Amino acid sequence: MTTRTLLCYGDSNTHGTEPVRALGPLSRYPFETRWTGVVAAALGSEWRVIEEGLPARTTLHDDPIEGVHLNGLRYLRPCLLSQLPLDVMTLMLGTNDLKARFSVTPDDIALSIQRLLWEIDTVSTQFGVAAPKVLLIAPAPIREIGPLAGIFAGGERKSRQLASRYRKMAREAGVGFIDAGTLIQVSEVDGVHFEPDQQRLLGEAIAAEVTRLID
Predict the structure, then answer these.
(1) 9: which strand partners?
(2) Among 12, 21, 186, 191, which residue's beta carbon has the most beta carbons within 10 A?
(3) Is the pLDDT of residue 1 over 80?
(4) CA dihedral 47, 71, 102, 155 (to 10 degrees)
(5) Helix, strand, or coil here: 4?
């Protein structure tokens, strides 16, 4: 039996970070609670699920406060080269680009996603293998509430404009697409992260779409 591989590339909402009640150290849900764990359970033993979620990861920006290691484009190539060949890859980034410190528009965030999609295709070609099927996930819109509100000031309005732009990018690139905002909502605690029931709903939807992409 051939084992298929799914790489989940994203930020804290792929890492499984729990809603933040106060600024400081982050806590993480157990694997079976995280949406990646839900996906792994749904896909079964024929699949290997690789979690590559990093809290505060951006699409392609060096974070001037939290560090250059959070640049999603900077790490994407070595990540792919260490994991290829892959069958499917999920890509859910853009939420951290909404932070006030970056001052980028929804169009800029979508173009950053386009750059990441190009990188995935290019690296696979250079490695000499077929590019993985990609499932692009538009992040659920954020809310400016709780301890993260100041960091994401102005981001709520922008976040509601991302899904339509991501959908267009997915269509042009010929990749799968899910609008997380039609499935789940962010936590009332911090307006960014997902509660356990929302993790489950998202994981179930992603597992179904991964299965569809591979059939």
Answers:
(1) 52, 91
(2) 186
(3) no
(4) 10
(5) strand
| Rounded CA separation 124/120 (Å) | 6
- 47-53 vs 133-138, strand pairing mode: unpaired
Pairing mode, strands 47-53 and 88-92? unpaired
Coil, strand, or helix at residue 45? coil
Burial of 50 (0-12, 13-18, 19+ CB in 10 A): middle
* Residue 92, SS3 per DSSP: strand
CA-based nearest residue to 36, from 210, 212, 215? 210
| CA atoms of 65 and 187, how far apart (whole Å) | 25
Distances (CA, A) of 183 to 88, 125, 135, 180: 21, 34, 15, 5
> Looking at residues 121-143, what average pLDDT do you find?
92
The pLDDT > 70 percentage for the chain reads 100
In the block, tokens 């993480």 appear at 28
Identify the sign of the CA torsion 87, 55, 204, 31.
positive
